Amino acid sequence: MKRIGLLTSGGDAPGMNAAIRAVVRTAIYYGIEVFGIERGYAGLIDDTMMQMEMRSVSDIVQRGGTKLRTARCLEMLTEEGQKQAVATLEKHGIEGLVVIGGDGSFRGAKCLTEGYGIPTIGIPGTIDNDLEYTDYTLGFDTAVNTCLDIINKLRDTMTSHERISVVEVMGRHCGDIALYAGITSGAEIIVVPEIAYNMEEIITRINRSRANGKRSNIIVIAEGVMTADAFAKQLQDMTSYSVRATTIGHIQRGGSPTMADRMLAAQFGNKAVHLLKDGIGNRVVGIHKNEIIDMDIIEAVSMKKKFNYELYETLQMISM
Ligand code: ATP
């Protein structure tokens, strides 16, 4: 393979830039040209791209966001859009494509692979950690660390005023950000889409913690359940404690990637190019049990994300 394309698609995630860098540098190492496609599939359809050099990816390893920018592109869902995307690739002699994004972006890659025989490699870039085949996605660790920083600060003020803080985190339909941020921040309660909550049980738990000397409580709620405001209101209506709601919001999607995300980015990007170089396409890369793995893209997107009930039980035992 002499020339490959690279795009970032869907929601941005810290570590995407580090992955772009790893793909570009590995490809150049092997004498493969890289075309950076702007704004995800939209740029592929509109033919907005540039050749990337060694220095095009200087000074980005530490930056959040994505140098290639990203977009959600409805046209890619249509046959016409897909044909246009393939025509762009053919026009530039691009033989393989690396797609950094979440499950939606992988579905786009799957279409190009299944329908038109374009070898594609998916790199999981989403803060949501909602892909079953990989233990971690790029950006998740940084997003959780951002939540921790904010929860630590909230704990200070909540303890001073003996309040309950309801903190809303992202994750779409997946509760992993809430689970990991909850367990590592010492939150007493997490509310996730995967487990139905019972407000009376939550209040019993809070009462017990207060009887045991606790002076504040943190409840981390995933956006897939409801807003922090709505939950705080429900709770406030049923208790005399003072309740405050905080929505962390898009701050979770930005910021300098952590060591863990930069390392994943380096390994995922490197692996993606190795696969294409060896003529292997139609795969996604990931990490499982500390090993960098690759898997059939169709199999990967059809796997249903499982919730880690063991970690949830751990939180129940140690946060009270
Ligand atoms: P995140 O998890 O951060 O939201 P994502 O990759 O899942 O990222 P989506 O908006 O679901 O984000 O998908 C990104 C883009 O991938 C879509 O805008 C569209 O261009 C393309 N895409 C999604 N689903 C399909 C599909 N079934 N067929 C073709 N293309 C698709």
Set out the fold topology.
Elements: E1 3-8, H1 16-29, E2 33-37, H2 40-46, E3 49-52, H3 79-91, E4 96-101, H4 103-116, E5 120-124, H5 140-161, E6 163-169, H6 176-185, E7 189-191, H7 199-211, E8 217-222, H8 228-238, E9 242-247, H9 259-277, E10 283-288, E11 291-296, H10 297-302, H11 309-318
Parallel strand pairs: 1-2, 1-4, 4-5, 5-10, 6-8, 6-9, 7-8
Antiparallel strand pairs: 2-3, 10-11
The structure holds adenosine-5'-triphosphate.
Ligands: adenosine-5'-triphosphate
Could you tell me how far the N terminus lies from the C terminus, measured between alpha carbons in angstroms? Answer: 56 Å
Strand content: 15-25%
**Stretches where pLDDT falls below 50 for ≥5 residues?**
none
Tell me the major beta sheet. Answer: 7 strands, mixed
Rg from alpha-carbon coordinates: 21 Å
Number of strands: 11
Q: Kindly report the average pLDDT value.
A: 97
Fraction of residues in H or I helices: 40-55%
Please list the strands of the largest sheet in the order they lie side by side.
3-2-1-4-5-10-11
Q: Order of helices and strands, N to C?
A: EHEHEHEHEHEHEHEHEHEEHH
Structural class: alpha/beta
Write a short abstract of this structure:
The chain contains 11 helices and 11 strands. The chain has helices at 16-29, 40-46, 79-91, 103-116, 140-161, 176-185, 199-211, 228-238, 259-277, 297-302, 309-318; strands spanning 3-8, 33-37, 49-52, 96-101, 120-124, 163-169, 189-191, 217-222, 242-247, 283-288, 291-296.
Q: Can you walk me through this structure?
A:
This protein has 320 residues and is α/β, with parallel strands linked by helices. The chain is built from 11 helices and 11 strands. It has helices spanning 16-29, 40-46, 79-91, 103-116, 140-161, 176-185, 199-211, 228-238, 259-277, 297-302, 309-318; strands spanning 3-8, 33-37, 49-52, 96-101, 120-124, 163-169, 189-191, 217-222, 242-247, 283-288, 291-296. Strands 3-2-1-4-5-10-11 form a 7-stranded mixed β-sheet, sandwiched between helices. The chain has a 4-stranded parallel β-sheet with strand order 7-8-6-9, with helices on both faces. α1 runs parallel beside α9, α2 packs across α3 (79-91) and α3 crosses α4 (103-116). It is elongated and about 70 Å long. The mean pLDDT is 97.
